[in-house]
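Instructor's aside before we start: the two examples that follow are unrelated to each other. I chose them only because their records fit on one page, so don't look for a connection. First example below.
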Amino acid sequence: MKLKKVNVNGKWGLLTEDEREVISPQYDWIGEFKNGIAKVGLGYRVGLVSEKGEIILSPKYIRIWEFRNGFAMVDASWHDNRGLINEKGEEIIPCRYRYIGEPESGFRRVGNDNSFKTNCGLVNSEGKEIVPPKNNNLIDIIDNEMVSVKENDKWKIIDKEGRRLSPHKYDSIEKYNDNFLVYLRNHKFGIMNNRGKEIVSPKYELLRLSKERNFIIVITDNLKYGLIDNNGTECLSPKFDNILIFSKGFLLIKLDDKFGIVNVQGEIIVSPKYDKIWEFQDGIAKVLLKDKYGFINQQGEEIIPPKYDYVWDFCNGFARVALDNKFGFINEVAKEVIEPKYDYIQDFSKDGVAIVKLNKKYGYINEQGVELVTLGKYDSITVFNNGFARIYLNGKHGYINKQGDEVIPPVMC
């Protein structure tokens, strides 16, 4: 229903479009309607009317601020006795504060001076004051059910009704993820669930936090390492000499100078037995045991037992391997595709060709191990460039293509 203003003897009211009176002329002014609500004034007081012609709130406040998300701040006096009303005109927060903050997870910070960050209180969504404004209060809103409050250099934890959830006082409390919080009490770290109950007593000396917030590496006072999982449960008891953040979803464990692997749920994938383990790449990891190199998969299975004297990094899908001073190749799934039989090899080029040497003679092989040029045919060769390679024979040079054909025989000096 669209209404229009009418002025009778200096007082304002509202009429329908067909001139029917819905609010008699009684106000000193009527503001514009916004979202179905308009402010009205009488003397120094302000009230509210609806676009349906209903009086929502008789003029009683000195000021009504603009509505935001269904609520508006109101001032009961010139001295900033501020409260909060809803669109029905109901006073949700009584007018006794100087400052009322924006909603945060169902709570609002309140204060009695402009230094509300250090003189701060808290009201819940029903307007109940659960933390009175007090000097040096610090408040951390954890979620819509729980708040931590610092008083006299110690933190306590309360629910949305202001009830203490734990009898203890803490040096610090921090929400770690949606499932649990980390606390410090008596100079030791512990874990509490998302309802403020301690589920791991304060016993850890140090914590290493994960960037993804899905696990915590814990360290005891005797420097033993364990693991807390995503639910705040101690899934790996502190017995290791070290635990290191490793590949995504996996951690490196160390015990008696040997390394193994666990996942972030604390399940041991590889018991500590290797001298070194490299990060997973495409699902496999290089391992070292008694000066021999091999490969494992993410299930901890040895897909190549430690047998090579050395393994180089992968290049263009292949890695060089050395065994008894002979060289070959493995592919990206750690399958030996070219057995170690050459005296020297270079990495495969992007063209899929590698230089090899056997008995002081050079040649080329492709990724299937096929010799493109008979070994010993040339004294020296170069890598391919734009499909061609330079060859040397008896002090002269020429060029071959990738099929091994001499496009220019070695006749040039």
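Example two begins here.
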Amino acid sequence: MKRLLPLAAAALSLFVQTIVAQTPAPAVAAPAAGPRAGAQKQGAPAPSVQAKPEEVAKIKAKTEQIDALVKDLKAKGAKAELVTDVEVYAHAGRMLLENPDMFANQNSIEHAFTTLDQGIERAHQLQANSPQWNQGKRQIHAYQSAIDGAVLPYGITLPENYDPSKPVRLYVWLHGRQNNTTETEFIFSHLNRRGPGNPPVADQGQIQLDCFGRINGAGWHWAGEMDVFESIAAVKKRFNIDDQRIVLRGFSQGGEGAWHISLHYPDRFVAAEIGAGTVSRTAQQRPDLKPFQLSTLRIWENISEWALNVHNLPLAGHDGENDPGQLESSLRARAQLEKEGFPSVGERDYLRSQGAPGLWMQSLATGHGTSALVRQRLDALLKEWGDKGQTSPDRIRFPTYTTRYNRAYWVSLDG
């Protein structure tokens, strides 16, 4: 199966700004995921390596073995969601066979062998009706995407003293650009994670969801966007998630995705944390674009027009002081809120939007990363809103430019 390519979408231009109180409808729960802490490296990606013929043959043999085991498990009526947790390894192997040039280095080839062996072991455990992968703090599960039938992985990190009988908050994490993080590398890295490059996120009793996003997921747009929501839905089937305490987080390219998803779905999360998320400036850089092109960009790229949705979504934009390309996106969103009548107050590195729950932070003397002080401030924000939980507001300010993104709590646009 070939990698899904993003499709461009035409756009309608609509704007609604509702200030009239109505009877609140229950909030629709949003996707959840967990954070992958750690600074993302910028610059040109390292060249990939090509697997040798004998290495490709080894991958093929292991993949075919998993496929055969999956077929047997299905025939014997094994539990479907557990079979999916095995089948994801066969899908991962097939992706490597279609793309044998996507290995970052020799280690990633060895990681692929280890991961495929893990898939074989899972199948044998399920044949014996004794699956072990649902245990432990770090887990890998999978779901079948409604987009194209792909079986895709997601990572779970459980909190200390996790009690499945109690609803818990969910942190949804969108990773940064990772050009060689194939399915096997994602699985291996999650289960063998090193310490974070950035200060770790405070444990507030949350489950963390790491979304795979089809490697880079078009900056978490198109299929990447839906992967986030499908991952959240899959987690909610397996774990006791509190629908009113789902937090969206992302850094670097994941920050780009968090800008896009949070501002287009302002009623899906109790809070959003967006780090170093660059958003395209094509509209500003291309004065030759036609009106129909600009209207599409207004949907997919330009956070400025959507920034007013922070009015009903507690959101923190944070960037390194010495990371100007990424910092610029937060500055644009903040400036738009100021134009809308929500001035920024505070210190240069810690500003609040008056009248809207927007926070704007800079990690001083920091490049593409997060300082300990900013991490502490972000954790305080996530704890505050996670403790409060999400509620339907009496007052809504909601801009949209398309019926593709047409709702915020009890306001919806249908045409």
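Confidence is low (pLDDT under 50) at residues 1-44.
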